[in-house]
Design brief:
The protein is mainly α and 124 residues long. It has one domain. The chain has a two-stranded antiparallel ribbon. The protein has helices spanning 44-55, 61-64, 71-78, 84-116; strands at 3-6, 18-21.
Amino acid sequence: MNERYAFESAHPQASSHIVMKHTNPVVPVLVGPQIPRKEREETTERYSRALLTLFVPWRSVHDLCALNQTWAEALEVQKPLISLASLKIIENIQLLHERKHDRDEHLRQVLVEAQSDNSIDPVL
């Protein structure tokens, strides 16, 4: 049976919601903007914030990132709190980004080759 946990009484949804721990494994489907790529400098803060909010337990934003920290710094500090299973998921997210990039590059090459080769061999 699934374990059920009540919210703290101060939580705004304490009287109407609970948290359930599933006994059978489930695969969450994230809805919303995708997690940014790790290696892009312009998205480092968004990437770090996304990982912290998804993989580190927290009740308020201050549990994740201090006022005097960047999100990237906070991720480095909090990384030891992320489980090995979650680190594997993070690695897989990055691999998905890389494979999508490889796929797009391959498609571009195919299109360039198709445009440069205007002759069509007739099949008789």
